[in-house]
Amino acid sequence: MVGYAFMGAAHSHAWRTAPRFFDLPLAPRMTAIAGRDAERVAAAADKYGWESSETDWRRLVERDDIDLIDVCVPGNLHAEITIAALEAGKHVLCEKPLANSVEEAERMTAAAAAARERGVFAMCGFSYRRTPALSLAKRLVDSGALGPIRHVRAQYLQDWLTDENAPLTWRLDKSKSGSGSLGDIGAHVIDAAQWISGTNLTGVSALLETFVKERPVGGDFVGLGGHGGTDGPKGPVTVDDVAAFTARFEGGAVGVFEATRFALGRKNAMRLELNGTKASLAFDFEDMNALSFYDRADEPNAGFRRIQATEPEHPYTGNWWPVGHGLGYEHGFTHQVVDLVGSIAAGEQPEPSFEDALQVQRVLAAVEASAADESRWTAV
Amino acid sequence: MVGYAFMGAAHSHAWRTAPRFFDLPLAPRMTAIAGRDAERVAAAADKYGWESSETDWRRLVERDDIDLIDVCVPGNLHAEITIAALEAGKHVLCEKPLANSVEEAERMTAAAAAARERGVFAMCGFSYRRTPALSLAKRLVDSGALGPIRHVRAQYLQDWLTDENAPLTWRLDKSKSGSGSLGDIGAHVIDAAQWISGTNLTGVSALLETFVKERPVGGDFVGLGGHGGTDGPKGPVTVDDVAAFTARFEGGAVGVFEATRFALGRKNAMRLELNGTKASLAFDFEDMNALSFYDRADEPNAGFRRIQATEPEHPYTGNWWPVGHGLGYEHGFTHQVVDLVGSIAAGEQPEPSFEDALQVQRVLAAVEASAADESRWTAV
Amino acid sequence: MVGYAFMGAAHSHAWRTAPRFFDLPLAPRMTAIAGRDAERVAAAADKYGWESSETDWRRLVERDDIDLIDVCVPGNLHAEITIAALEAGKHVLCEKPLANSVEEAERMTAAAAAARERGVFAMCGFSYRRTPALSLAKRLVDSGALGPIRHVRAQYLQDWLTDENAPLTWRLDKSKSGSGSLGDIGAHVIDAAQWISGTNLTGVSALLETFVKERPVGGDFVGLGGHGGTDGPKGPVTVDDVAAFTARFEGGAVGVFEATRFALGRKNAMRLELNGTKASLAFDFEDMNALSFYDRADEPNAGFRRIQATEPEHPYTGNWWPVGHGLGYEHGFTHQVVDLVGSIAAGEQPEPSFEDALQVQRVLAAVEASAADESRWTAV
Amino acid sequence: MVGYAFMGAAHSHAWRTAPRFFDLPLAPRMTAIAGRDAERVAAAADKYGWESSETDWRRLVERDDIDLIDVCVPGNLHAEITIAALEAGKHVLCEKPLANSVEEAERMTAAAAAARERGVFAMCGFSYRRTPALSLAKRLVDSGALGPIRHVRAQYLQDWLTDENAPLTWRLDKSKSGSGSLGDIGAHVIDAAQWISGTNLTGVSALLETFVKERPVGGDFVGLGGHGGTDGPKGPVTVDDVAAFTARFEGGAVGVFEATRFALGRKNAMRLELNGTKASLAFDFEDMNALSFYDRADEPNAGFRRIQATEPEHPYTGNWWPVGHGLGYEHGFTHQVVDLVGSIAAGEQPEPSFEDALQVQRVLAAVEASAADESRWTAV
């Protein structure tokens, strides 16, 4: 694994935990973790349960005892690492967004396609797909329960930048993160909307805004944000604070998307609603173990059902606890490992593929292009 | 009063009920109701409690025993009736949207301004303003509780057109209604967003869509929709089924708006959320007696409070029932009458004025212009 | 009508409004209202729309132009007035609880039975039965949707006595009110539980408690409570502050009941939940337009549906507004008038009858007896 | 560890995971797991990450390389194992309920007290205490935020026995489980109510009921329940299906408790509500990452706040994910390990102690005694 911050902790937990609750066809070994600082990466290896550590990710690519590389670093490093890994015959799990540009994403996707020919697979880490309630949503749509979809409503609302004094982090630096709310959290709902609806976006009309143009360099980092100093130096915020766009889908549905880190009071409101002609679905990650489902067949006594997606029949949940005993954020990562290992063992392409992630990247680019052109309609 | 359908019933109830629960400075008399069909308007007069009926609205304008005319007919008739009434020295309460075009709305507003000089007042019936929870929202914003507003999220979601076979009604005929979801329900959230935030929209980027292009002429009308015949003639739907747009406000806030009658499962989800730097507010008419409020000062133990807007200190509610004993949809109309009568007695302009309603009309026009021009950014 | 306080206002509104929204087989006239204070009752007549006023309820019984007497006074006066009215051939609508003792209730019920022989009817005002969501609950149970009922969970939680300094009112004086939370609000959920389940309670084990033994005499009355003086005289609270009991129903269901006015934050949480073997129902008056319904047939994708009880097919709601446009507290009273007038016109016994109300009274008595006897099981 | 079923999996996960997210003062080694079936316990050791396995728990007590024994077997075995372990100088973590009788619990508590003198500690596994939202509830009560507590409302509602054909399991066999809903799930809310309120129950009036007297022996076991055969042999259910009781607390609060596995639609509704004179708290495990909090100081704009108990300032959550990224059921067990290891390292008694658990056991006994004596009030 490359990287040992927030995503590094989540991925490590997933690799440790997956074989404890699921019968995996292959037994993953947590061979090595890489990071630039020798001392810190060694500490991370010990803490997270990796057998060894490296200070250069290239060493992971070179080592023969490594079959898969899990890339958990900022987006500006994705292309170089994943392409090298795939070319070296290592399977790859790469965090989202796939890259910081369509051009990079295309090169990565080409590398993945070439590797696939050799039985080497690449997967992109849109982990929310494996939240059981969202997996159930996908299953319901695929079953035809919703009928043709008219509306997609997608929001990802957080509030950790509301404080004008929250410090600059790599997430606010375009050279590292590629974009702001758009790529960090918007990408999740774009992927989820396309995946669950089974249709891609065909065009967008977008608006981007940066409310706070500069922020303190350094300060007290807490969670993703924190409290910057009030009298120290400031640096420029080079990414969007909010992305809002309307969209159309292949099947004719109308979409409304919003991603922001200024929605005071919304902590992790990754929300999706689909209105079909036969049924509707709604989800909010702040109540992550539940899926709301409205079935027109229930009328006149219909209403959104709060399905607790914890039944043994539901995706993944039968391997955990009895019904009603909720799962947490990290379980999506564990399920991602389960499916990735299963696909590799079966010689099948795991999902989401780099092609899927490239499509998301194209949407991100269309959003930026539209926003830069008076919100004019822009094809994806 | 002119008109005796859905809005006619609601307004009549308001005129009958207002003096029973509030001490009004003037005692309204329900003198006459007008409609084209003599028999049906006479029946409506009897049912709704009007002393007499007329088959021509011009008679109301002429009668000396009438001081105020309440206009509850489709939008295409608003300009002619209200202007005649105002010129005849009658106060006017006119249903929303104010008109079917900016040009009409401007003429009406000019007539209202001229009448005001003579102590005659005009008000537009955006009745949701008087839902206690929304009145409380306005009060909280005005008190400065939210600080500068970053986000406005406004939706008006209904589902009564989901059925492709729901019949054609005047609401689907552009010549009568002016527009579809946009003017019928979108206008409500545009007005509410501007009024509560205290700032106007400055520009929009919009998308309109008509999912079902033609519908049965006639059928079984139920509520606003119903079930059309499956083998009879069909006629064209000439209005939008959905309106979606991004927006900017004077104060720098970013807005996302959506109005639709295809959101299966959402019956009357007139929703508004404002995120300020100090507090946030959220409202959904499907839980109309509650206002959600998040106060950053409560952190780290903050959360959206579900305020039941039924306290004696809350707007209007002290005149009704003990706390927790909710009010219904029609109370907004009753409160509208209370405030209108109070303003007339005090010789003051009631709110929303025609100027306020004209501003909403300009937003509607900008939305249509943007949608017709590849969603390009369009100033209001 | 006798009485013009909280219930007087609600009942007057109902009499005025019922014929405006429903086609009644008889046209009620609001002939006269009675109260002891001549000036105040005359003002109430004017405010509430009664044609005349009387200072002695006996005058209503004597007047020939009165066919029905609506009794909205404290419980200690119910027996005398209703029996006199029934014997004089007047139909009676009597507020709940029916009486302050089983003995009074039995005499009233006997009078009602005798009157019924002469075509004169008595009804008890458990108005919550006509909240559309609860009427729908009854309909669902009657349809067999729930199967045998295992559990009944009934709460009526308010908080207006939390403040130790809230003033003494007649509701805290046993000689007037009969009991405290038990009869005032507990009676509502006892009636609702028996009516909706279709089974009576057979026994109880109860606990009563008075948290605050004395309160200020006088003060600033607001809603049902208010703020008493802090240094003036105090008087004894002679009723229960809370009633809690377990129960068994005829059909084998186990019940848990609680009524209190000290549940800080719960304003009018009149709640009922029934768990059957096939489906479950839950209701909370603080979200009064919705009924929660869980259908085992939906498993494994089952969940409590939030049914907005505002469909044209639902009880009463088709006469009001489009779906999703909620009703308020007072609509239950209006529907009560509608059904009462309909029953009288049809020569049928309206529900709830005095027999039904007597059964509630027997439960109240059993609760008090059990609480006085170490919570020992007490048959109803 | 002894036992490898549901609780065994949860505890193993906790031991594996605690050091990965928390800095523990001692490094736990997962030395050995014991179970009667050699093959299955060896498989469990491998699956759950234990270094070795034993077929007799006594071997764990004898082994020198074991410092702590975690007891995850049915209640009938608790006394023997824990007493032997404590006498052998092993720290003990024992699942709840502590025992199947007060007599056993007293002997265990005496053994724990004696062991404590020698620096050896015993803890009982009421793991819900370490659900962050409930830990936060405790912190709020301890801070005085609620003021004197008037009401405790505690429910534990599940539905996995609703199906009359669900098979017999050890949880329905009194000789193994001690009691039914009462000890299995009621014990959790009794402990939580006493712990969070900071006061013990002083007396109860109770009702127990077994709805389904016999069930199929064997069948298809799923989760805690499943589907028994319809024509095979049946065996007697020897425990309660539901326990309901009223209660009083030391501080004067009135409690209402209910535990059942027949509340159709309620999957794991472990609920607690406390009403103080200054604030109220409410929790439902089906929305386990949130705590509802009502603060009277917020009036008249007060309402239950939905606090997402995921802030860095909240108990335990700072070691996991950013705010709003929820935790799951098993995190309570991990936190339990964290605190247990911390207490052992510090030489302090971990909580809940066996004394705390004995108090719960006394409540269980009082409930059974009252239910057997016509629900008569019974001191704890």
UniProtKB/TrEMBL annotation, chains A, B, C, D:
Lineage: Bacteria, Bacillati, Actinomycetota, Actinomycetes, Glycomycetales
Domain GFO/IDH/MocA-like oxidoreductase: residue ranges: 137-281
One MF term in the entry's GO annotations: oxidoreductase activity
Keyword tags: Oxidoreductase
Naturally occurring in which organism (per UniProt): Glycomyces paridis
Domain Gfo/Idh/MocA-like oxidoreductase N-terminal as annotated: residue spans: 1-116
Domain of life of the source: Bacteria
Pfam family, one: GFO_IDH_MocA
SUPFAM superfamilies in the record: Glyceraldehyde-3-phosphate dehydrogenase-like, C-terminal domain (SSF55347), NAD(P)-binding Rossmann-fold domains (SSF51735)
Name this polypeptide is given: Gfo/Idh/MocA family oxidoreductase
